[in-house]
């Protein structure tokens, strides 16, 4: 799995000129300022059960895009691009969801859109690409975000999901298993216990409960309405504040049966794939519904502008993108890239981990956040302080953009600088 990272610093204005009605830059690299961020509530991602399952994904994306336009009084013909993350681009989520969502939100037809897929990193990559467009001088006003309807049927096509899609040459070099089986394999290899992972799940629920009760998400939360104007959802639907340590300990591991289920007529299994890379591995299955990310529907977006554009249009910046980084890691252990990505972006930003006031790490599985905090030796009181995807859910293509908004809101609430 690939991971991107972004950091915040107090914005500073640089030179601004005007020639024949056009902004003239006096510096080779623009600053990318975050003007605003918002998200929908996250609904339970199960057809017939969650509050958002029958909302069209284009309309879900349109909800946050319309909110950004209204909250910031945008002239949408000046939005240079809308870069959108969606991991499953099939069915209603196909056909360039970012562009279609913008049109559905009433954006000017001259505001272009593109949809990308970097799996769980799609949303943060969309924001990073938006920032890169501004930094390079290609655009002055760009939106990055994402949408994922986890309740949508047929999200990964027919049959079992194998990342190589039958490319046996690739499988020979990089046998890639299911993410849940991968999470259990990492926990086994790293010696991270079921008890530690259950505690991570419990803490996520408790922190999310406090954040919701104190209204910490209200600034960015945009209600979703159905086509007839009735309210679909105005609060996060997935959290389970009643979760106890005892209840988590009683849950059965989620992936043993999946690991051993045949994927083809040759008897290939997810377990056999991971064993190709680690033949002596005896996997201890430790993940379950209570310490894995929630399956949800949701959308989020971040509005970015160049310093010149923001100054010229009276926009007040909330943050500046200090640095960004991409980092790949072992495809066989696809959840291990966040640690090297964080190290890379800190180096690019000229910062140390001690400089960071708040961290957000996606809780795809508890082992991801647990390994991240352990390997970087972080102060746990600075990590996912309002809960994470275990409690709130992980709409794959949207989560990265949502987390940027979450850490920004909390940095402002606490009067802190870097995240």
Describe the structure.
This protein is α+β, with helices and mostly antiparallel strands. Helices cover 34% and strands 16% of the residues. It has helices spanning 57-71, 97-104, 122-136, 168-173, 179-190, 194-213, 245-250, 256-260, 270-277, 307-312, 338-349, 366-376, 389-392, 399-414; strands at 3-9, 17-19, 22-24, 32-39, 43-44, 81-85, 112-116, 141-149, 224-225, 231-233, 296-306, 319-327. The strands form three sheets. Strands 1, 4, 5, 6, 7, 8, 11 and 12 form an eight-stranded mixed β-sheet that branches. A two-stranded antiparallel sheet has the order 2-3. Strands 9-10 form a two-stranded antiparallel ribbon. The protein starts with a strand and ends in a 5-residue tail after the last helix. The model is unreliable at 1-23 (pLDDT under 50).
Q: Which features does this protein show?
A:
single chain, 419 residues, alpha+beta, eight-stranded mixed beta sheet, 12 strands, disordered N terminus
Q: Outline of this structure?
A:
This protein is 34% helix and 16% strand. The chain is α+β, with helices and mostly antiparallel strands and 419 residues long. Strands 1, 4, 5, 6, 7, 8, 11 and 12 form an 8-stranded mixed sheet that branches. The chain has a two-stranded antiparallel sheet with strand order 2-3.
What order do the helices and strands come in, and which of them pair?
Layout: E1 3-9, E2 17-19, E3 22-24, E4 32-39, E5 43-44, H1 57-71, E6 81-85, H2 97-104, E7 112-116, H3 122-136, E8 141-149, H4 168-173, H5 179-190, H6 194-213, E9 224-225, E10 231-233, H7 245-250, H8 256-260, H9 270-277, E11 296-306, H10 307-312, E12 319-327, H11 338-349, H12 366-376, H13 389-392, H14 399-414
Parallel strand pairs: 6-7, 6-8
Antiparallel strand pairs: 1-12, 2-3, 4-11, 4-12, 5-11, 8-11, 9-10
């Amino acid at each position: 799995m690939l991971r991107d990272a972004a950091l915040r610093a107090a914005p500073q204005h640089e030179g601004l000129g005007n020639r024949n009605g056009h902004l003239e830059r006096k510096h080779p690299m623009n600053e990318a300022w975050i003007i605003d961020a918002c998200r929908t509530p996250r609904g339970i991602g199960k057809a017939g059960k969650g509050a958002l399952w029958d909302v069209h994904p284009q309309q879900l994306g349109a909800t946050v895009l319309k909110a950004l336009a209204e909250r910031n009084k945008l002239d949408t013909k000046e939005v240079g691009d809308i870069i959108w993350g969606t991991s499953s681009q099939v069915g209603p989520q196909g056909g360039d969801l970012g562009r279609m969502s913008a049109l559905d939100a009433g954006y000017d037809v001259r505001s272009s859109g593109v949809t990308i897929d970097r799996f769980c990193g799609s949303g943060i990559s969309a924001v990073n690409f938006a920032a890169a467009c501004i930094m390079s001088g290609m655009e002055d006003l760009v939106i990055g975000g994402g949408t994922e309807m986890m309740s949508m049927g047929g999200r990964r096509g027919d049959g079992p999901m194998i990342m190589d899609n039958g490319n046996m040459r690739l499988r020979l070099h990089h046998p890639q298993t299911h993410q849940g089986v991968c999470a259990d394999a990492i926990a086994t290899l790293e010696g991270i216990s079921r008890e530690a992972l259950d505690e991570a799940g419990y803490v996520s629920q408790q922190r999310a409960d406090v954040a919701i009760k104190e209204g910490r998400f209200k600034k960015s939360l945009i209600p979703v309405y159905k086509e007839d104007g009735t309210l679909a959802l105005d609060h996060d639907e997935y959290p389970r504040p009643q979760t106890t340590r005892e209840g988590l300990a009683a849950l059965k591991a989620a992936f043993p049966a999946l690991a051993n289920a045949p994927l083809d007529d040759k008897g290939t299994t997810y377990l056999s794939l991971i064993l190709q890379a680690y033949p002596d591995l005896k996997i201890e299955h430790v993940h379950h519904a209570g310490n894995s990310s929630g399956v949800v529907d949701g959308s989020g977006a971040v509005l970015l502008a160049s310093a010149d554009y923001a100054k010229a249009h009276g926009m007040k910046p909330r943050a500046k993108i200090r640095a960004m980084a991409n980092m790949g890691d072992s495809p066989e252990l696809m959840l291990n890239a966040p640690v090297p990505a964080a190290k890379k972006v800190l180096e690019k930003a000229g910062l140390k981990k001690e400089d960071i006031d708040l961290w957000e790490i996606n809780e795809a599985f508890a082992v991801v956040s647990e390994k991240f905090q352990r390997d970087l030796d972080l102060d746990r009181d600075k990590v996912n302080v309002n809960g994470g995807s275990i409690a709130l859910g992980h709409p794959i293509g949207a989560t990265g953009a949502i987390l940027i908004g979450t850490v920004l809101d909390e940095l402002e609430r606490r009067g802190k600088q870097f995240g």
